[in-house]
UniProtKB/TrEMBL annotation, chain A:
Binding site for Zn(2+) 1: C62, C65, C72, H75
GO molecular function terms noted in the UniProt entry: DNA binding; DNA-directed RNA polymerase activity; magnesium ion binding; zinc ion binding
Transmembrane segments: none
SUPFAM superfamilies: beta and beta-prime subunits of DNA dependent RNA-polymerase
Entry keyword set: Cytoplasm, DNA-binding, DNA-directed RNA polymerase, Magnesium, Metal-binding, Nucleotidyltransferase, Transcription, Transferase, Zinc
Catalytic activity: RNA(n) + a ribonucleoside 5'-triphosphate = RNA(n+1) + diphosphate
Protein name: DNA-directed RNA polymerase subunit Rpo1N
UniProtKB/TrEMBL annotation, chain B:
EC numbers: 2.7.7.6
Entry protein name: DNA-directed RNA polymerase subunit Rpo1C
Organism: Halococcus thailandensis JCM 13552
Lineage: Archaea, Methanobacteriati, Methanobacteriota, Stenosarchaea group, Halobacteria
CDD domains in alphabetical order: RNAP_A
Swiss-Prot/TrEMBL keywords: Cytoplasm, DNA-binding, DNA-directed RNA polymerase, Nucleotidyltransferase, Transcription, Transferase
Role of this protein: DNA-dependent RNA polymerase (RNAP) catalyzes the transcription of DNA into RNA using the four ribonucleoside triphosphates as substrates. Forms part of the jaw domain.
Domain annotation RNA polymerase Rpb1: ranges: 17-331
Amino acid sequence: MSTNATPKEIGAIDFGLMNPEEYRDMSATKIITADTYDDDGYPIDMGLMDPRLGVIDPGLECKTCGQHSGSCNGHFGHIELAAPVIHVGFTKLIRRLLRGTCRECSRLLLDEHERDEFAERLQRARDLDDDVNDVTKAAIRQARKADRCPYCGEEQYDVQHEKPTTYYEVQDVLAAEYPQLIAEAMQPDEEEDRPATSPQELADATDIELSRINDILGGEFRPREESREAIERALDVDLSEEDLNKLMPSDIRDWFEAIPDEDVEVLGINAERSRPEWMILTVLPVPPVTARPSITLDNGQRSEDDLTHKLVDIIRINQRFMENREAGAPQLIIEDLWELLQYHVTTFMDNEISGTPPARHRSGRPLKTLSQRLKGKEGRFRGSLSGKRVNFSARTVISPDPTLSLNEVGVPERVAREMTQTMNVNEQNIEEARQYVRNGSEAHPGANRVIRPDGKVMKILDQAKEELAERIEPGWQVQRHLSDGDIVIFNRQPSLHRMSIMAHEVVVMPYKTFRLNTTVCPPYNADFDGDEMNMHALQNEEARAEARVLMRVQEQILSPRFGENIIGAIQDHVSGTYLLTHDDPEMGGLPRFNETQALDLLRATGVDTLPDDDGTDEQGRPYWTGRTIFSELLPSALDLEFTSSTGDRVAIDDGALVEGTIDEDAVGAFGGEIVDTIVKQYSETRARVFINEVASLAMRAIMHFGFSIGIDDESISDAAEAQIDESMENAYERVQELIDTYENDDLESLPGRTVDETLEMKIMQTLGKARDSAGDIADEHFDDDNPAVIMAESGARGSMLNLTQMAACVGQQAVRGERINRGYEDRTLSHFKPGDLSAEAHGFVEDSYRSGLTPREFFFHAMGGREGLVDTAVRTSKSGYLQRRLINALSELETQYDGTVRDTSDNIVQFEFGEDNTSPVKVSSSDDNEIDVDEIADRVLAAEFEDEGEEFAGAQATNLSESADDRMDRDRPSSPIDVPEVGDD
Amino acid sequence: MTEITGEIEGIVEGTDLPKRLKDEVYESIEGRDVTDEQAASIAEAVESRYLDTRVEPLDPVGTVSAQSIGEPGTQMTMNTFHYAGVAEIDVTQGLPRLIELVDARKTPDTPMMTVYLDEQHAENREKAHEVVWNIESTRILALGDVSTNVADMLVQVNLNEQTLDERLISAETVAEVIEDSLGVEVTQTGTTIEFGPEQPSYRRLLQLVEELREIVFKGIDEVSRVVIRKEEVEGNEEFILYTEGSAFGDVLDIEGVDASRTTCNNIHEVYRNLGVEAARETIIDETMNTLEEQGLGDVNIRHLMLVADIMTAEGTIESIGRHGISGNKDSVLARAAFEVTVNHLLDAAVHGEVDDLDGVTENVIVGKPIKLGTGDVNLRMGGATTDGSGRAD
């Protein structure tokens, strides 16, 4: 394969270091000039923008491959470095190698036995998938212990590493001031009781001639190794000095070249792919121009890429280095230049090395070099390789549309005209295809492009569309506009679970927003306060089939997190069904409807005939109750009984609601019983129809009754107000009592708490109770038809606590779980006396939102509210990272045909998923027994007596499109569905 | 009512049901009057229901589980301290605790143990208290007052007789322990203990007091506080001890402790003392408790099992993240794409690694279909044409 050919599919990727020879071989040209363009704006030959490195300007031709910009990927060049430099990425490894190998013969400082042992351990670690670094580090540690090379016997010195790229050999040499040191040691020392040593004594003790001793003391003779040691022993003095011998990269390269392959292998380095000497660069590859494109600014000036800037620096220094060396410059200057070259090459690869000042742009901005391009969220790996930009996608604001099915999405025509689906033209659809082409790219169900069988793409222009339409033959492809019934993928970020990306069927609509059925808000966690969502048009038949079968909204009704429905009635739907089915004697019992009203309620559903009436009114006209109307939506054989969280028993017998109010527990998102049962016992399609119909019935119902909430709905009578005031007064008294006992030191502390803490806890408790009782008083006062109460009762929105806060008392404000205790010294605000422990001085808000807060209360309330905001901000980032880690760790796990859970390398993680192979989607996690054996047993026995078999789960095709719903068995004859006919052009 | 005959057993055992469901079937059959045939059809019906609820092959359960734990994370509080069951002991809760578990930290922020007692000790307050004193570390300030007599260069300890009796320590032992651990001569008369530095030194005197405060006379050093509570466990009232601080191995050896039920919230301690399976169980329990405490107990426990299983699959506890599972992946690209990109690439070069592109991330990077779910099967379209020019693929 030539260096230029890009593989179609990558089978595996080998990693290794590159041989300098290889760099030279693959290089398109040697780069010698630091200049980029000449005065005419043409790239200079053998300069950094040499046309052999590829082209970026349109119209120019690559001198290496002859292709134009866009198709030429670019080619590497190379710079011959004047002197070797160290690769910064490998400084630690270089240090290890220097320490572990012989300075003379370069062999690993382990005898054969040890070496084989480490080789064995390494192999074992590889087999066991352990960390290889543990073994190699141990090997180096062992090797460092050797003072002498076991092979050549050469003495070894320690190697010091000065970050980032300098290495020293530490040798012990005779200290420069040795005469002084000896003389000092010969002086008497009173503190340590040491008598003076005369030169004669020293001579005797060391076996050195006296004259020699005198020479040494006079600094005229440097003692040799042996005599030095003798003197040191005799005088108990250290005459050595650490001398740092700098190892130049060229020395290191020579050193490493001699390390035998077998020794390298013991250190975990693959000698065949990565010789250690290749970590010291002699040739620098120059990335192709395409990897560092220059930008032409508005004023015609060229602005070069950071990498180009860096390469310019390297070439300049390289040039200077060579010139100086040829001119025979002093060693000092050469070394300086060498260091400078090292710096530039270092920052070319990584500009964030600690201890080195980052290379900067003229403007002072640090340069973005190779390492920085790869790293981090916006880096090459996470930003460009793991996350890719795609075509055929659209994004706009979302808005609600209750007339759509939950499977559908309203797509603005403008979007539909831009996004295309490819049609393969054949005998059957050729007329249709021609019509699309005739419509052109401006009219809606039109087409944007046609592709001839030879692959030529032709844009459909207004002038040529008629003619083009006639030329179309089977075998051509037409890229037609997105139209009704097409399947698309819809997504809202953050995509926290799989229901954040679902497939919808397109309904093309006017205006500019995506339209959603409100029941799909919970899975996307969407609202319409300006949320935007993304849409992706699918581009091949496999993708469309997968999306339709696996990803369509109705297939995602059940959440795998808790195994119950996540799609269902929300907010006004719940209020609506509640009003429709609630039997409140005070409100005149179950709501009744005459024929017109009943038909109006059901008009947006698939029910087109009314059941038998429930009776007649005084005038003899038949009426239907809300429950009867609701029952029409249920599958006719449904039997269900449950208790809602308000304690209301709901009973459905044979598809008729006989008792109970339909509220959030029945039809709501997040585990509404009826929806859940229908998905599990009937089918996803049936459940979809049910949810759609409940939603439209509920909308009709709530419109029938009328439903609004205003500030007056939270006002309470003066009597109740007085009662609340009284209970507040009581609470204040109790708090004062607590404070008094505390101040008299009579307060008994709770186990494990200090008295202060106990007081705080007790006050909090008292005030909590005070708010609750205020709430209770207010609650008693509210009628059952109060809209806020209805919403809280039915679970549609809000809670009784919210109502309490609006009507009665906002309650204690807390920061960090405590009463507000900050601000001034010993007090929260200057309005209070220091040390005031009372309720109002520590953030108790006695007022209600309706009555309004005092300035002090408002301030405390803002403090508490602020904590909440901070908390959310911190939480989102933390939990986002947690999610990323979890997904990264678990993403490779998949169940296999044998029931085991394995990763993609076939390592078994579980022998049976969740210990019993049960799918979390199909069973509810809140039920005690996910499979109710007793119930099944009862059913089996009952069925036997009745002598009729029962289908538990109706197996039905679920991948039918919205328009094919007629085929679904609704457990009732004939049922046209609520969906508008799919547009036919 | 119906006896489980060999025949029924044969039928039930022949089904694909997991043990838990088999037991339930037996129970259900025993509870009512059924013939063998009816029993068989019950078993069959349960089995068919069970088979319906099984996971499908090639289901990407890993991602689903990760999402199912991560998604509720957004709804949890950041508030670190909250009272878990026992009001007296602060335990890290919410998101910080979940992160801590998944990180497999060596020591949790608030180590804690729940100590169950054996039969002899569980129902008797006195006996339970004996265990408490053996667990809770007793330091000098709990036993009496310490004063320094600068004039005589003496440290004086006035022990409280009542607490001594209560904690079952004698003044003699206190004196002995002080002597042993401080290496000074101690004089003890009644409940008064006196000692001082060998040579008069003010500094040494104060140092002795400091050291004295650190001495643990009884109990376990790490456990600073024990709360004893009477709770109902399976219909029985018994005393349960909650400790602040943990020393799981030591506690299991203490007499009166029921080692089979006692738990600890430090997964590493559980791993060291009871092994990796117990650690797995602890991870599941602790995560589940954390979620429940936040009102998110509806998360299916199977998701937590999968997380616990991948953390313990190697036989040791591995954390989820750069230093654990994600950092030990086979694929260079997968590691590079997660964190510390450059280092992974450089190391891979030196070691001459080969990336076989099996995993998910790698295939996203190189643009190939991933080998999960529908990407894990190959379909071939049969060419059913008569002229033999049928198209494959």
